[in-house]
Design goal:
Elements: H1 2-23, E1 27-32, E2 35-37, E3 41-49, E4 55-64, E5 69-75, E6 83-91, E7 94-105, E8 108-110, E9 115-117, E10 119-128, E11 132-145, E12 156-158, E13 160-165, E14 191-194, E15 205-208, E16 217-223, E17 230-232, E18 236-237, E19 245-253, E20 258-265, H2 271-298
Parallel strand pairs: 1-12, 2-13
Antiparallel strand pairs: 1-3, 3-10, 4-7, 4-11, 5-10, 6-7, 8-9, 11-13, 14-15, 15-18, 16-17, 16-19, 19-20
Length: about 300
C-alpha cells in the first residue's frame, strides 16, 4: 500500500513537472549587440515566443541604465506591432509601450529552420553615453491570447546586456550597428472625422496615425485654427464651432522632424445655409419695396 501511494505521488509530481515546463515555454526576451562603443547608436529588439499560441496584444515596461545609455526612439521595420495604443516612450528611466497585432500571430516563419520562430515585436533605439555594462530588464510583461477573452499568456522574461567601450576605432568583431540618426520627416498621413450619432453620447472626434521608419512617432500636437498648439492623442475629441474651420495635426518623430496633416471640420452653420438666409433677406427686402411701391401708386 505504501509502495502504491509513493508511485501515485511520483506520478503526480511528474505530471506537475511537465505542466510547469509547458507553462513557461512561452517567453519574452531582448536581443542586441554584445558590444558597442561610446557615442554609437544601437538597437534593442524585443521578441516574444508564444509557444504556438495565437497572441494579439502586448503591454510592456522595460528598465534600462539611464546613466549609460539614452533612449532615442523606435523602429517598426521587420517588427509585427504596427498599431500602438501607447507607442514606446520614456519616463523615469523606463520604456513604456502597448500595442496590438490584428488577427493575432503564432510566430514568424524561419526559412532556414523551416518552422515558426520568435515574434519580433519592436526595435528600440538607444545611444551609448559612457563605458560600462548596460542592462535591460522587464518590469512588466503582459501578453494576451487571441481567444476573444483577453486571456493572459503565462510566460517567462529574459533581459539582456551590452558592454560599452570607450573606443574611437571600430573593430570588425564588435558587431556594431550603423548610425540610425533620423533626418527624414514622418510619412504623410490622413485624418478621419468621426461624426457622433444624433442621440448618442459619443463626442465629435478625429482619428489619425502617422508612421516614421527612421525613429518612430514620439508625439502629436494639434492646432484648432489658432496659434496655439496642444498635445494630442488619437482618437482626439474636438469641439464643433459655429462656422467650419481647418484643424492641423502635427506628428513628431524622436529627432523633432515633423509632418502636418489637415482636415476641415464642418460648423453648425454651413456656407450654403448662410447663402439661403442671404437670398431670403434680399427677397424679403425686394418684396417689401414692391408692396410699398404698389401701395403708394394706389393712393
Amino acid at each position: 500500500m505504501k509502495y502504491f501511494s509513493k508511485t501515485i505521488l511520483i506520478f503526480f509530481l511528474f505530471l506537475f513537472f511537465l505542466s510547469s515546463t509547458k507553462v513557461f515555454a512561452a517567453n519574452v526576451f531582448v536581443s542586441l549587440s554584445p558590444v558597442v562603443n561610446v557615442g554609437e547608436n544601437f538597437e534593442v529588439l524585443i521578441n516574444a515566443n508564444s509557444d504556438g499560441i495565437l497572441i494579439n496584444s502586448i503591454n510592456l515596461i522595460l528598465d534600462y541604465n539611464q546613466d549609460l545609455v539614452s533612449f532615442s526612439g523606435y523602429k517598426n521595420d521587420d517588427a509585427l506591432i504596427r498599431f500602438w495604443v501607447d507607442s514606446p516612450y520614456e519616463k523615469n528611466g523606463n520604456i513604456y509601450m502597448s500595442g496590438i497585432i490584428p488577427g493575432g500571430v503564432l510566430g514568424l516563419y524561419d526559412p532556414n529552420k523551416k518552422e515558426l520562430g520568435a515574434i519580433p515585436l519592436v526595435s528600440l533605439l538607444f545611444t551609448a553615453k559612457k563605458e560600462g555594462i548596460a542592462t535591460f530588464s522587464f518590469i512588466k510583461t503582459e501578453i494576451l491570447k487571441h481567444d476573444g477573452k483577453g486571456t493572459e499568456l503565462i510566460h517567462k522574461e529574459n533581459g539582456g546586456e551590452v558592454i560599452i567601450r570607450n573606443s574611437i576605432i571600430k573593430s570588425d568583431n564588435l558587431n556594431t550597428k550603423d548610425d540610425v540618426s533620423d533626418k527624414e520627416k514622418p510619412e504623410s498621413f490622413e485624418i478621419t472625422l468621426l461624426e457622433p450619432f444624433v442621440f448618442g453620447r459619443t463626442p465629435l472626434m478625429i482619428v489619425f496615425r502617422a508612421n516614421d521608419n527612421g525613429s518612430g512617432i514620439k508625439e502629436y500636437k494639434i492646432n484648432e485654427g489658432n496659434s496655439v498648439w496642444k498635445n494630442a492623442k488619437s482618437p482626439q475629441q474636438i469641439s464643433r464651432g459655429i462656422f467650419s474651420r481647418d484643424i492641423t495635426v502635427r506628428a513628431f518623430d524622436f529627432y523633432d522632424n515633423f509632418q502636418d496633416s489637415n482636415i476641415r471640420i464642418p460648423g453648425l452653420i454651413s456656407p450654403q445655409f448662410l447663402w439661403i438666409i442671404f437670398i431670403l433677406i434680399i427677397f424679403c427686402i425686394w418684396g417689401y419695396k414692391m408692396i410699398k411701391y404698389k401701395y403708394e401708386m394706389s393712393l
